[in-house]
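dumping this here before i forget
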Amino acid sequence: MKETGAHRYFGSPSAMYEHFTSQELGIARQSLLNYWQKTEEPYENAICIIRKGELERKKKI
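structure:
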C-alpha cells in the first residue's frame, strides 16, 4: 500500500480480496484479472501497486 509503504504477498488474487476490499485496493477483482489478460505489467493506481509473480515453495516429500 502506497500510503504506509507496506508490502503484502498473496498466493492468488482471491486471497488478496479476502484481506482487502475493492475499495481499499481501488480496483475490483474482475477488473484486475481483465487487466492481466492484456499485460503482465504491474497494476498501479493512487492507492497501491499490484505485481503478479510466482511464489517459491518448499517441495512436498
